[in-house]
Automatic annotation (TrEMBL):
<dbReference type="GO" id="GO:0048536">
    <property type="term" value="P:spleen development"/>
</dbReference>
<dbReference type="InterPro" id="IPR000210">
    <property type="entry name" value="BTB/POZ_dom"/>
</dbReference>
<dbReference type="GO" id="GO:0048565">
    <property type="term" value="P:digestive tract development"/>
</dbReference>
<keyword id="KW-0677">Repeat</keyword>
<dbReference type="InterPro" id="IPR009091">
    <property type="entry name" value="RCC1/BLIP-II"/>
</dbReference>
<feature type="repeat" description="RCC1">
    <location>
        <begin position="118"/>
        <end position="170"/>
    </location>
</feature>
<dbReference type="GO" id="GO:0008283">
    <property type="term" value="P:cell population proliferation"/>
</dbReference>
<dbReference type="GO" id="GO:0001889">
    <property type="term" value="P:liver development"/>
</dbReference>
<dbReference type="GO" id="GO:0048535">
    <property type="term" value="P:lymph node development"/>
</dbReference>
<feature type="repeat" description="RCC1">
    <location>
        <begin position="276"/>
        <end position="327"/>
    </location>
</feature>
<dbReference type="InterPro" id="IPR051625">
    <property type="entry name" value="Signaling_Regulatory_Domain"/>
</dbReference>
<dbReference type="GO" id="GO:0001669">
    <property type="term" value="C:acrosomal vesicle"/>
</dbReference>
<dbReference type="Pfam" id="PF00415">
    <property type="entry name" value="RCC1"/>
</dbReference>
<feature type="domain" description="BTB">
    <location>
        <begin position="394"/>
        <end position="457"/>
    </location>
</feature>
<dbReference type="Pfam" id="PF00651">
    <property type="entry name" value="BTB"/>
</dbReference>
<protein>
    <submittedName>
        <fullName>RCC1 and BTB domain containing protein 2</fullName>
    </submittedName>
</protein>
<dbReference type="InterPro" id="IPR000408">
    <property type="entry name" value="Reg_chr_condens"/>
</dbReference>
Length: 551
């Protein structure tokens, strides 16, 4: 995509403050396309890239190192060998056994992927030879690109709209694809069918970072200089002009400034310096330069985010949005924000720049390959849930219907007024319980650990009895909710009877309305035939008042 996928900061950077927000695991579910995946599938995601003109395609890897794709499959960009869309994840078997190091995408879209072994694979849209395989045929399956790269290890990839850039481990840059504005850096405007090394001013330089805008290319070298080439109609090359540049040219205005990384938007550019400062230039119609206005800038202009050091800048060639993260963990955004123009850096509530593009960018794509680290940390609530009915840590057990339920005295006293008094001076480690059934009492104790219940409507009636007896009003409401969700013609009278017995007026009214709405069937059930005389009398009287027996 726009730029690069590896966070190559270079130089020494002070460690990021480990705040609670900075430790949160990235939530891939914030990208709408992932709503097609189940919760179980999302838990397995370890890497992901969301792309496409509407953010409707995604490639992701799992904890098992399998690669899956999902979405509209425009021009075969899912690499499955066809152009059929899919709303269910399909495994990309042609890359089986390959581990992804970095990945980028174009506007077609086309995909450029580098493995941890340094190999390059491409597929998707290819009308401008952006796949680098020597043809202009769309690639329906991943193709290994080795021409001029056979002895090279690729460590970073970047895509413009229809051209591709890769960086090798020895600091060389190769480009191919669309070249109408000189974005290949070859000195001409002829499209490049296979990888070609970018030379000129970069000939004897060691590049450490690359990025692509819509139709321009950039590289940061190990001395901190920035070299640019390609389209410059909005001043996105930072050369002080608007003329295209067919070969790499150093940005002279950054003389004396050591740049560590560059990020390109659709037609604007951001750089991060070794001192944690940000400069921006290029198109500014949405305020994406963060200068407080919407005037384009053809020279690098400082962006004032906050006094804290910036450690990351983010942009994407398909969007007019910018983002930055500070050493303190604050994330700022500016530019296009869901149709609005934000002209100054705005502090968000996010902990990651990735979230900015999921929630604010149009389309909702990823600006780099997402990396999702597993979060093994348990919250206090999660830890308590795991300890319920655990004989290894319990100091109290309830004997109900001949079976034990294991619990912890201190938690019961904290959570329940009944236990606070009954266990206050008790040294017993076994409590026999005969008033309630095992399923009901176990559900009650589990509720004290989890704040939730999972019972059938019939068992929830018994728990409603217990909740009434122990004066647990919240539990009483949960029971009523469970009963409402599970009511049917067969059990409606029984549930109505329970509601009356336990003085659950809201539930009583609900059950009564259900019986009236299904009167013909309900009156033919065994429950209605066995109905308590007084309850039946009251039911008929109330039903007649609401017109249930009118012809």
């Amino acid at each position: 995509m726009e730029e690069d996928f590896l966070l190559l900061y270079g130089g020494s950077v002070k460690p990021v403050q480990a705040t609670l927000s900075s430790l949160k695991m990235l939530d891939v579910g914030k990208w709408p396309i992932f709503s097609l995946c189940s919760e179980e599938e999302l838990q397995l995601v370890r890497q992901a890239c969301v792309f496409g003109s509407a953010g409707n395609e995604v490639l992701y890897t799992t904890v098992n190192d399998e690669i899956f794709v999902l979405g509209t499959n425009c021009c075969g960009c899912l690499g499955l060998g066809d152009v059929q869309s899919t709303i269910e994840p399909r495994r990309l078997d042609s890359l089986s056994g390959k581990k992804i190091a970095c990945l980028s995408y174009g506007s077609g879209p086309h995909i450029v992927l580098a493995t941890t072994e340094g190999e390059v694979f491409t597929w998707g849209h290819n009308a401008y030879s952006q796949l680098g395989n020597g043809t202009t045929n769309h690639g329906l399956v991943p193709c290994h690109i080795s021409t001029n790269l056979s002895n090279k290890q690729v460590i970073e990839v970047a895509c413009g709209s229809y051209h591709s850039l890769v960086l090798t481990s020895d600091g060389e840059v190769f480009a191919w694809g669309y070249n109408n504005s000189g974005q290949i850096g070859s000195g001409s405007t002829a499209n490049q069918l296979i990888p070609r090394r970018v030379t000129g001013c970069l000939q004897n330089k060691t590049a450490v970072n690359i990025a692509c805008g819509q139709m321009c290319s950039m590289a940061v070298v190990d001395t901190g200089e920035v070299y640019v080439w390609g389209y410059n109609g909005n001043g996105q090359l930072g050369l002080g002009s608007s003329g295209n540049q067919p070969t790499p040219c150093r940005i002279a205005a950054l003389q004396g400034i050591c740049v560590q990384r560059v990020a390109c938007g659709y037609a604007h550019t951001l750089v991060l310096t070794d001192e944690g400062q940000v400069y921006a230039w290029g198109a500014n119609s949405y305020g994406q330069l963060g200068t407080g206005n919407k005037s384009n800038q053809s020279y690098p202009t400082p962006v004032v985010v906050e006094k804290d050091r910036i450690i990351e800048v983010a942009a994407c060639h398909s969007a007019h949005t910018s983002a930055a993260k500070t050493q303190g963990g604050h994330v700022y955004m500016w530019g296009q924000c869901r149709g609005q123009s934000v002209t100054l850096p705005h502090l968000t509530h996010f902990s990651s720049t990735d979230d900015v593009f999921a929630c604010f960018a149009t389309p909702a794509v990823t600006w780099r390959l997402l990396s999702v680290e597993p979060d093994d940390h348990l919250t206090v609530a999660e830890s308590l849930k795991r300890e319920f009915d655990n004989p290894d840590t319990a100091d109290l057990k309830f004997l109900v219907d001949g079976k034990y339920i294991y619990a912890h005295k201190v938690l019961l006293k904290i959570r329940c007024e009944h236990f606070r008094s009954s266990l206050e001076d008790s040294e017993d480690d076994i409590v026999e319980m005969s008033e309630f059934s095992y399923p009901v009492y176990r559900a009650f104790l589990e509720y004290l650990y989890t704040d939730s219940i999972s019972l059938s409507p019939e068992e929830a009636v018994g728990l409603l009895d217990l909740a009434t007896f122990y004066r647990e009003n919240r539990l009483k409401k949960l029971c009523q909710q469970t009963i409402k969700q599970g009511i049917c013609e067969e059990n409606a009278i029984a549930l109505l009877s329970a509601a009356v017995k336990y003085d659950a007026q809201d539930l009583e009214e609900f059950c009564f309305r259900f019986c009236i709405n299904h009167l013909t069937v309900v009156t033919q059930t065994a429950g209605f035939a066995e109905m308590d005389h007084d309850l039946l009398k009251n039911f008929i009287s109330k039903a007649s008042r609401v017109g249930a027996f009118k012809n």
